[in-house]
Amino acid sequence: MQEKIFRAEKLNTLGEMAASIAHEVRNPLTVVKGFLQLMQADDRQGKFPYLPLVLSELDRAEAIISDYLNFAKPKLEKMEVFDLGEFLDDMVQLLNPLSIKKSVALTGKMETGIQIRTDRNKLRQAVINLMKNAIEATPPGGRVSVTLSAAGTEAEIKISDTGKGMTTEQLARIGSLYYSTKEEGTGLGTMVSLSIIEAMGGKTVYASQPGVGTEVKVFLKRNESHGG
Ligand code: ADP
Ligand code: MG
């Protein structure tokens, strides 16, 4: 298995610029979307059959913008203590519709009693991106599993898939800005995840084999007052 371990990547200036542009562009987009939705509601005769397509492209633009905003602001804001296993079970639930759509079996197996103290929303974003990539890489009939276990003072989240995997070259490029092999990919998801995990003082380790699958491990410090 090829492995890649991530270290700090500082892209602050670029990040701030991206954030301000993304923020400014989001507002007019929201207004346009609102009017188009009104048009669609009024269009009982079906004079504008392309409206759903226009709206779905707007959704895509919005998704790209939120990727940018997340990429630009990996700073942790609201810190909370919570149960990591319960949190991950929720993430599995959340991505269940996507896995069903792709005919991929998504399962979770979490060790109980693992607490963590961090920004829940940021962790959610980080984990969702990694899980989405796993599901997207996996062909119909394949499997994606999410597990949580204690590893000393750390919590180990493992997301493994039976997907297409990555070559050494691809693995070397993952997490770099705009690297995507997908037709509609932004190449921002992994960057966002890695910078959030980095900001949490955590570590991400990839192992992958073309045609076999990929395994991403995320190590995060457990909350000290709860054992470990
Ligand atoms: P996007 O998903 O928009 O393409 P990402 O930054 O999330 O951007 O991922 C970058 C690229 O890394 C993907 O296009 C894909 O080629 C590769 N990749 C990420 N996760 C996996 C995975 N679990 N299995 C195979 N390839 C992956
Ligand atoms: Mg992605």
From TrEMBL:
Residues 20-224 form the Histidine kinase domain. GO terms for biological process: cell wall organization. Its EC number is 2.7.13.3. It is a multi-pass membrane protein. Keywords: ATP-binding, Cell membrane, Kinase, Membrane, Nucleotide-binding, Phosphoprotein, Transferase, Transmembrane, Transmembrane helix, Two-component regulatory system. It catalyses: ATP + protein L-histidine = ADP + protein N-phospho-L-histidine. It is found in: Cell membrane. Its main location: membrane. One of its GO terms (molecular function) is phosphorelay sensor kinase activity. GO terms for cellular component: plasma membrane. The keyword Transmembrane applies. It is an enzyme of class 2 (transferase). This is histidine kinase. It comes from Metabacillus mangrovi.
